[in-house]
Amino acid sequence: MRVVKVVVPGSSRVSARCGDRTGSGTTSLVVRDLPAGPCQVTAELDGATLAGTLRATESHAFSCTATGGALECR
Prior knowledge:
0% helix; 8 strands; Immunoglobulin-like; mainly beta; four-stranded antiparallel sheet
């Protein structure tokens, strides 16, 4: 079982899709039982919708920040 937590400080909405699994929240979310691979993350920050991708290979907590008009998740 893989669990990924995504935190986007300052966001008013965040969502993620990892394979057929999704999660959403305000500043953070958790996606459970997801397959290994890419996750698409979107967040609303200061009225702008930003997107980014993270790679889930094991259970991990990611923090995402706005960088050049996109989300960078580490």
